[in-house]
Write a structure and sequence with these properties.
- The protein is built from 14 helices and 18 strands.
- By secondary structure, it is α/β, with parallel strands linked by helices.
- The protein folds into three domains: about 100 residues, Rossmann fold (3-Layer(aba) Sandwich), CATH 3.40.50.720; about 170 residues, Dihydrodipicolinate Reductase, domain 2 (2-Layer Sandwich), CATH 3.30.360; about 80 residues, Alpha-Beta Plaits.
- The strands form three sheets. Strands 7, 8, 9, 10, 11, 12, 14, 15, 16 and 18 form a ten-stranded mixed sheet that branches. A six-stranded parallel sheet has the order 3-2-1-4-5-6, sandwiched between helices. It has a two-stranded antiparallel ribbon with strand order 13-17.
- The protein starts with a strand and ends with a strand.
- The model has no long low-confidence stretch (mean pLDDT about 95).
Length: about 425
């Protein structure tokens, strides 16, 4: 790469603004460590006049980011808009076609269009870097791509969404219900003030799982449906009962190969208190990589926010400036195969089941009978009566059963008039 490098930033939200400041303040450090001089030649956002922490140079401002690529001599472009389609995709696509390196934290874009964009980057001999798309400041993608490159990875799991981890941790700590803690998370900036749905329903974590799968197993990003659940239905009652059973509830993202078939999933899990992952609290992320010969590798850190995200973006920048032109997913596109997908219905796992029922004789027998009919056996049972309401909570920990039987069983309970609401199902983490 030439000595003087021109940079453009598209998207000036929290991350884009923070990055702009970092680039301006650390030019000397960058030159010292790479031998390259950087210059910001173009920036773009919806609104130039929006109040921002850092001053915007109006001379290099473009409302339409596509004009940057057409009118400016750009070597490296940062995309920080955050959409999976429309202008985000158009900008990245056009940049790659014009032999411009692209760096992005956009996990939605990469998880949906990563296969196509990776092929485009390889064809045009430029980098598509996205370290910041998974786990914020944790260098997990580079670790898999470089440090663990010769290992046979067979499983990756962890806490991939800081918003959900904060909510679950705070519910346990404070004893408050989900809605109250969500409001607190929004005030602190951990959750979107408007619509935090993509965090809460598991989609954010799932997008990251798909990226991890592709890198870990040398496969194309899958487009198949997978097991995905969020934390919206978790109540403090579940957290309290789990605590009594020596568990914590965590939203986990897991990808693994079972009989050389890809099994991706995101869902709340009961995790033993004495495990590493059970003690990752607050907004922290943690990723555990299982491989051979390395064994178990753990990386932990802040998974979101402009600071950690910018740290990963800068890491990608320095990699490009040092001349590391490499395949986006670690291997040539023609070597990345379509993964065979594991049938989730065949997955065996122990379950936490909570039933809210009328407190009357015979109800427990009805429940255990229905479980037995679906080949689900009981390992542990707790009954918590509410004498005032004449109701009871029945909590059952099951032996391992397959996913199909578990879901079929849950559906069957809707016909039981003694069960007051849909049972809560949480899987145990093996």
């Amino acid at each position: 790469m030439k000595k003087n490098v021109n940079i453009a930033i598209v998207g000036l939200g929290q991350i884009g603004n923070y990055l702009l400041n970092e680039l301006n303040n650390k030019k000397k450090d960058i030159e010292l460590k790479t031998g390259k001089k950087i210059k910001i030649v173009a920036i773009s956002a919806k609104n130039m006049n929006k109040k921002r922490k850092y001053k915007i140079n109006k001379k290099i401002f473009y409302k339409n980011p596509l004009e940057i690529i057409k009118k400016c001599n750009v070597d490296i472009l940062f995309e920080a808009i955050g959409l999976s389609d429309k202008i985000s995709k158009k900008v990245v696509e056009l940049a790659l076609k014009n032999h411009i390196h692209v760096i992005t934290p956009n996990k939605a874009l990469i998880s949906k269009h990563g296969n196509y964009l990776s092929k485009l980057a390889e064809k045009n001999k430029v980098n598509l870097e996205f370290e910041a798309s998974v786990a914020g400041g944790i260098p997990i993608l580079r670790s898999i791509k470089d440090s663990l490159a010769t290992n046979k990875i067979f499983k990756v799991c962890g806490i991939l969404n800081g918003t959900c981890n904060y909510i679950l941790s705070e519910m346990e700590k404070s004893g408050e219900n989900f809605s109250n803690v969500l409001k607190k998370a929004q005030k602190l900036g951990y959750a979107e003030p408007g619509n935090p749905k993509l965090d809460l329903n598991g989609f954010d974590a799932f997008a990251k799982v798909r990226i991890l799968s592709s890198l870990s197993f040398n496969k194309k990003i899958s487009s198949k449906d997978c097991l995905m659940e969020g934390i919206e239905n978790i109540e403090y009652k579940d957290i309290n009962i789990a605590n009594q059973l020596n568990y914590r509830i965590k939203l986990l993202g897991i990808t693994e190969l079972i009989n050389n078939q890809l099994f991706e999933r995101v869902h709340p899990s009961l995790v033993k208190k004495d495990t590493y992952i059970g003690n990752v609290n607050g907004v922290m992320n943690a990723v555990i990589v299982h491989g051979n010969p390395v064994g178990e590798s753990i990386l932990q850190g802040e998974g979101a926010g402009p600071g950690p995200t910018s740290s990963s973006l800068m890491s990608d920048l320095l990699s490009i400036l040092r001349g590391n032109i490499k395949y986006p997913f670690g291997i040539p596109e023609k070597k990345r195969k379509i993964a065979k997908v594991y049938n989730k219905n065949n997955y065996f796992n122990s379950l936490y089941l909570r039933f809210e029922v009328k407190d009357k004789p015979g109800v427990l027998a009805q429940i255990t009978k229905q479980l037995a009919a679906k080949k689900i056996s009981v390992e542990r049972l707790i009954q918590i009566p509410d004498n005032k309401k004449k109701t009871a909570s029945i909590v059952i920990i099951t032996h391992k059963s397959n996913e199909y039987d578990a879901q079929s069983c849950i559906k069957s309970f809707k016909f039981n008039k003694n069960i007051l609401k849909k049972p809560t199902l949480i899987r145990l983490f093996n």
